[in-house]
Amino acid sequence: xxxxxxxxxxxxxxxxxxxxxxxxxxxxxxxxxxxxxxxxxxxxxxxxxxxxxxxxxxxxxxxxxxxxxxxxxxxxxxxxxxxxxxxxxxxxxxxxxxxxxxxxxxxxxxxxxxxxxxxxxxx
Length: 123
What we know:
Layout: H1 10-23, E1 31-36, H2 39-46, H3 49-55, H4 64-74, E2 78-83, H5 91-104, H6 113-118
Parallel strand pairs: 1-2
């Protein structure tokens, strides 16, 4: 699976990748090991940032739309997050990066409506 948007952020795409991976699991209570080079995503879970953001109603925090979607699918499974250094030769991480670059350079990318709404770009 891969894809992209015409205008978005790296953090949104990193988080969306995890969401879509978890949504692809068609049974409940799967044990899932997520490896990501996104400190934003991994630390949000492992260091309790997400819990704080939820408790404060995401005050002054971005990507609430995706985090709420994440919470829904995250709660269906037993998920562990692991950070790994990007561009360090990890085969699966290198493959993911190549897919991301390919998607980013693809034609006719859709609009990330959540990003545009958040950035007040929709008139």
